[in-house]
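Worked example

This section walks through a single chain of length 264. The input is the sequence exactly as stored; nothing has been trimmed or padded.
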Amino acid sequence: MIVELLVIGNEILIGKTKDTNSNYMAKRITKYGHKIRRITAVGDELEDISSAMKEAISREPDMIITCGGLGPTFDDMTLQGIAQALNTELELNQLAYNSIKRSYEAAFRQGVLKLDGMTKEREKMAYLPKGSTPLPNKRGTAPGVKIKLSKILIFCLPGVPMEMKSMFKIVVLPILKEKKGKFMEKSFIFTGIGESHIAPYVTEVEERYPKLWIKTHPRLGEFGAEIEVSITAFNVENAEELADIAIEKLKKVVINLKGKIKQN
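Given that input, the structure is written out below as tokens.
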């Protein structure tokens, strides 16, 4: 599947909060052989959310996952923005309302919250785009949302990492496993020569094996600068065999250029 992620929140754009959610999801989506085509971050602005969603839909991915903006405050407007993008309206979803109500009642009884009952702000979280399905939030109060748009599945998950991870595991992960593709990744590390030195040779191997994505990653290792050569492929039948051949060719280049292969 082709997947796009849409991360929503001013706190992400101003650097107050680090976006660990998209990293968490991307690793797991890729693990099961699905390809992240784009990760977009927008602020808590209705038009920005709506525009970003329209653009994502126009690219016709198999799945779009949004993260953040489902809460009770005035700036939580993800669902309103999505409804606008879909040219539909928000409506009170009774299942979502009952779930939120039970969560707050339980929190009040346990002394976690001092305010009882369904306020306007709490009820706000039960207004979902027309025709959508609420998703249970085992770690919080704001329900997630599932929308089926022709061939595109849209999931709206909470921005709180603990809540997002729980909902992702329960709702999204089973779909990723069911429609599992094949992802291959192999790598090796070398020292002694720079990235620019080996670059033309990497390009040559890449052109010879176009189904592979070959990328160099400079980093600081235990004994100074080192370069990781990473080779990945999606849904290529003989990917591992091709990767092994490519790695051997590049290792020989490193040795010929007087570099050193770092042993695992």
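What to look for: The chain has two domains: 2-178, 183-262.
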